[in-house]
């Protein structure tokens, strides 16, 4: 059951998450913006800055969910979701501190835990009849954290001065892009969740944008560019396949 504890806990966790993220931008924490920390560890996987604007959508959708779940006191399913979401919200806030204060190894551990919590929520919701007000917020959030986890681990490797076993950065970026696309496509087909796939398109599209931008990589890495294009086409194909089969199962 979605008890008073889980309902209020979800609300508090959401507020903590939003307030900490607001302070990270407005102060900013440790005197650096979230993007500035990322820029201090240059790598070929990082997306263009505009990609991070998706957080506004994520927080808006989660806010709608939090308000909705407050009215569902007898909903056992949302009780299960909220117990995981409370943990996720606190992890989200903790990640901001770890990231801004340059404790990259800890930020990587935290974001992996966030990803695991979102996988758990997706598994809880997969067979449910809940749709837009519940599945959509977590699908968008899950999609972004899928890519953000890979990006965070990439930053961790850069921070450790990892030499890639003597192989080039381009090689490892291409490999990471492909692995990310395979994992994302599998999860998209597994959950039959179109919004999740659209977020993958958004994230990989932003990586492509940065590589094509004259102000960034300016097309210096054609192997990376063509790999991203192939991944985008793969995502689009899987989304179309899921949409065509969507008459039998919910797609959001």
Structural features, described:
The protein has helices at residues 4-26, 34-39, 54-69, 76-100, 104-126, 132-159, 169-191, 194-212, 222-244. The chain has 252 residues and is mostly helical. The chain has one domain. Helix 5 (104-126) runs antiparallel to helix 6, helix 7 packs antiparallel against helix 8 (194-212) and helix 7 runs parallel beside helix 9. The longest helix has 28 residues, at 132-159. The chain is globular, with a radius of gyration of 18 Å. The two termini are 23 Å apart. The model has no long low-confidence stretch (mean pLDDT 95).
Low-confidence stretches: none
Class from helix and strand fractions: mainly alpha
Report the helical percentage.
over 70%
Task: Indicate the overall shape.
Answer: globular
Mean pLDDT: 95
SSE order, one letter for each helix or strand? HHHHHHHHH
Largest sheet: none
Total helical elements: 9
- Give the tally of β-strands: 0
Domains (count): 1
- Rg over CA atoms, rounded to whole Å, is 18 Å
Approximately what portion of the residues adopt beta-strand conformation? under 5%
Task: Kindly report how far apart the N and C termini lie.
Answer: 23 Å
């Amino acid at each position: 059951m979605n008890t008073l504890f889980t309902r209020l806990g979800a609300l508090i966790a959401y507020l903590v998450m939003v307030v900490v993220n607001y302070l990270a931008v407005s102060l900013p924490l440790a005197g650096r913006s979230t993007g500035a920390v990322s820029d201090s560890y240059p790598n070929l996987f990082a997306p263009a800055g505009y990609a991070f604007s998706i957080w506004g959508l994520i927080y808006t959708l989660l806010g709608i969910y939090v308000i909705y779940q407050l009215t569902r006191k007898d909903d056992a399913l949302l009780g299960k979701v909220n117990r995981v979401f409370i943990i996720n919200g606190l992890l989200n806030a903790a990640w901001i501190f770890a990231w801004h204060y340059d404790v990259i190894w800890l930020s990587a551990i935290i974001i992996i835990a966030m990803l695991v919590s979102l996988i758990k929520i997706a598994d809880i919701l997969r067979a449910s009849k809940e749709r837009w007000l519940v599945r959509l917020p977590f699908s968008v959030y899950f999609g972004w954290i899928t890519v953000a986890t890979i990006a965070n681990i990439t930053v961790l490797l850069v921070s450790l001065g990892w030499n890639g076993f003597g192989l080039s950065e381009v090689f490892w970026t291409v490999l990471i892009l492909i692995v990310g696309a395979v994992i994302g496509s599998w999860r998209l087909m597994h959950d039959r969740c179109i919004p999740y796939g659209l977020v993958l398109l958004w994230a990989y599209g932003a990586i492509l944008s940065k590589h094509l931008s004259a102000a960034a990589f300016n097309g210096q890495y054609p192997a990376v560019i063509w790999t991203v294009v192939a991944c985008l086409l793969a995502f689009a194909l899987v989304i179309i396949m899921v949409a065509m089969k969507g008459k039998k199962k919910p797609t959001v």
